[in-house]
């Protein structure tokens, strides 16, 4: 794997988006620089290549961007966790609270395999509410949570507590303003 890439230099910080008081960490700056995007996938791959993982689950929308190349590189199935009304077939649903609102996630019933060890991937982990909702849907239907992975982590919003006792790995931490 190539040397460390300074992700902070390409992550755009946007004050008061999508609402007053939120500092939005914008990953489009990563996607605009192929070396930065490649570094994210390489590093995520390195963090999980020796683990026992059966599938990658990713959360709409920005989570898909990182999870898809990672799953493909690991040779693992990719499971899409989507917002309400986007998936065909029978779905399981779970509502949750976000840093700036509340939402519902869904997964197709057919995508949850009993005892499958699932790694949950997203672009950014803040309160951990989204990933916790996604993971609890899987757990309630017999799958196992292997851990959580994100590009950006905001530990001051206490995701570690929300996602305990599972391991959480992120590539770039921010500790508040
Ligand atoms: O840890 P949490 O407090 O749950 O927050 C993190 C979630 O919030 C963002 O998604 P958003 O709902 O903005 O959707 P998007 O990916 O469609 O932009 C981000 O992509 C994570 O999924
Ligand atoms: N501060 C933030 N920036 C970008 N995405 C987010 N999702 C939740 N909180 C966020």
What does this structure look like?
- With 177 residues, this protein is α/β, with parallel strands linked by helices.
- It has a domain at 51-173: 3-Layer(aba) Sandwich (Rossmann fold).
- It has helices at 28-31, 34-48, 62-74, 129-140, 159-163, and strands at 12-15, 23-26, 55-59, 78-83, 91-98, 101-108, 117-125, 144-153, 168-173.
- Strand 5 (91-98) and strand 6 form a beta hairpin.
- It is globular and about 40 Å long.
- Bound molecules: 1-O-pyrophosphono-5-O-phosphono-alpha-D-ribofuranose and adenine (ADE).
What is the class of the domain at 51-173 in the CATH system? Alpha Beta
Q: What share of the residues does DSSP label as strand, in percent?
A: 25-35%
CA-based gyration radius: 16 Å
Regions with little confidence, pLDDT below 50 for 5+ residues = none
- List the secondary-structure elements in sequence, H or E: EEHHEHEEEEHEHE
Q: What spatial form do the alpha-carbon principal axes imply?
A: globular
The assigned CATH architecture of the domain at 51-173 is 3-Layer(aba) Sandwich
Protein structure class: alpha/beta
GO molecular function: adenine binding; adenine phosphoribosyltransferase activity; AMP binding
Catalytic activity: AMP + diphosphate = 5-phospho-alpha-D-ribose 1-diphosphate + adenine
Subcellular location: Cytoplasm
EC number: 2.4.2.7
């Amino acid at each position: 794997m190539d040397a460390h890439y300074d992700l902070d230099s390409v992550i755009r910080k946007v004050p008061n988006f999508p609402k007053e008081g939120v500092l939005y960490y914008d990953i489009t700056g990563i996607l605009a620089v192929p070396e930065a995007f490649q570094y994210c996938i390489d590093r995520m791959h390195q963090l999980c290549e020796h683990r026992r993982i059966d599938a990658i689950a990713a959360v709409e929308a920005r989570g898909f961007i990182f999870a898809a190349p990672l799953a493909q590189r690991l040779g693992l199935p990719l499971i899409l966790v989507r917002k309400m009304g986007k998936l065909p077939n029978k779905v399981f649903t779970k509502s949750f609270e976000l840093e700036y609102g509340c939402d519902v996630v869904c997964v197709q019933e057919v995508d949850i395999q009993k005892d499958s060890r699932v790694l949950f991937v997203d672009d950014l982990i803040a309160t951990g509410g989204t990933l916790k909702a996604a993971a609890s849907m899987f757990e309630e239907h017999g799958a196992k949570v292997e851990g959580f992975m994100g590009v950006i982590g905001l530990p001051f919003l206490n995701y570690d507590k929300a996602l305990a006792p599972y391991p959480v790995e992120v590539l770039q931490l921010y500790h508040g303003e």
